[in-house]
Each structure stands twice: as C-alpha cells, then as structure tokens.
Amino acid sequence: MKTNFKSLIMSFAGLLLFVLVPVTLFAQTNFAGTWALNESKSNFGDSRFRMAATSVVVTQDAKVLNVETTQPGPGGEEMKRTAKYNLDGSVSENPMFGDNVSKSTATWSADKAVMTIATTMTFDMGGESRTMNSSQIWKLTEGGKVLMIENVRTGRDGNEVKTTAAYDKK
C-alpha cells in the first residue's frame, strides 16, 4: 500500500493543531510578579478613597492566585495584607478588619485574558448589619508590563464608584 506523503503531513498538522490550540485558547493569564503603583497611569476619579496599594506581589498557579499588597497606613507605617483567590470558580474566604471575612469568587473572560474577582463582605456597623459588594477586574496591558486593576464598588448612596490602579512590573 502506497502512503501519500502529503496526506500524512496534513494528518500530522491537524493533530498538532488539535493538541496546541486548546492549550493556547484556554490558558489563563498569569499575573505573577512584583508590581509597583504607577499613579500617572491610574485613574482614581472623584473618589475620596485613594487606598490603592503601593505595591502588589502576586504568585499564581493553575488553582490559586496569592496576592500580597502593601499600602501606607494612617501613621505613615506600611500595612501589608494577603489574600488568596481560588481560580476554579469556588468561593475564597479572606480575613478583613476585626472578625470580618470577605467572600470572593474569581471568574475568567472567555479568552482567559481578564479575571474578575467579585467580593461580598457583611459586617456590623452601629448595631446594623451591612453588606458591601465590590469587584476587581484584572488585566495585563502593554505586553504584560502593566497590571491594571479596576475596582468597582457600590457606595452607601447606591452609586457605583470606579477607580483604576495601574502597576508597572518590576
């Protein structure tokens, strides 16, 4: 039986596409790195809450995104906070102030280039239970050299407040 060389090459190319395309199509963006706030690329709008971290250190694998943030405290000292987010769509719990815990769910855009972390925190304020909802939208720009984190939260008055912090890769 005579094998057609062209047919063999086409079969091999098809198999290669079958193996490689899903890997590239479904690979999630990796945000790992050490990032420094770039105020000139950030947009805090009219928000009086300019509490963006001055630095962000991210480690990431296929299952978990670990984030350590540093920001100035009220007395000028640095405050560090760590958070862990499950990347499989399950709820992550992270300690907040006092005994409060935030509950977050990370989801990916269809192309796996943008990650959204939706967070809910319920806490007691003056004897009243309050719930705060927010989201962070993470994406890389400038060829992976800039991490953009858009924060969206609903204020007490019900209005949506958006800020965007830009971080340069170190």
Would you mind describing this structure in some detail?
The chain is 13% helix and 50% strand. It is globular and about 50 Å long. The termini are far apart. It has one domain (29-169): Beta Barrel (Lipocalin). It has a ten-stranded antiparallel sheet with strand order 4-3-2-1-10-9-8-7-6-5, with no helix packed on it. A hairpin with a 5-residue loop joins strand 9 and strand 10. With 170 residues, the protein is mainly beta. Mean pLDDT is 83; it is low at 10-26.
**Number of helical segments?**
1
Helix content: 10-25%
Can you say what the CATH homologous superfamily is?
Calycin beta-barrel core domain
* CATH top level assignment: Mainly Beta
Instruction: Report Rg.
Output: 21 Å
**Which regions are unreliable across 5 or more consecutive residues at pLDDT < 50?**
10-26
Tally the beta strands. Answer: 10
- In what range is the share of β-strand residues? over 45%
Structural class: mainly beta
Shape descriptor: globular
Which features characterize this protein?
10-stranded antiparallel beta sheet; 13% helix; 10 strands; Lipocalin; globular
Short description:
The chain has one helix spanning 5-26; strands at residues 33-37, 55-60, 64-72, 78-86, 92-95, 101-108, 115-125, 128-141, 146-154, 160-169. It is mainly β and 170 residues long.
Strand and helix map with partners:
Blueprint: H1 5-26, E1 33-37, E2 55-60, E3 64-72, E4 78-86, E5 92-95, E6 101-108, E7 115-125, E8 128-141, E9 146-154, E10 160-169
Antiparallel strand pairs: 1-2, 1-10, 2-3, 3-4, 5-6, 6-7, 7-8, 8-9, 9-10
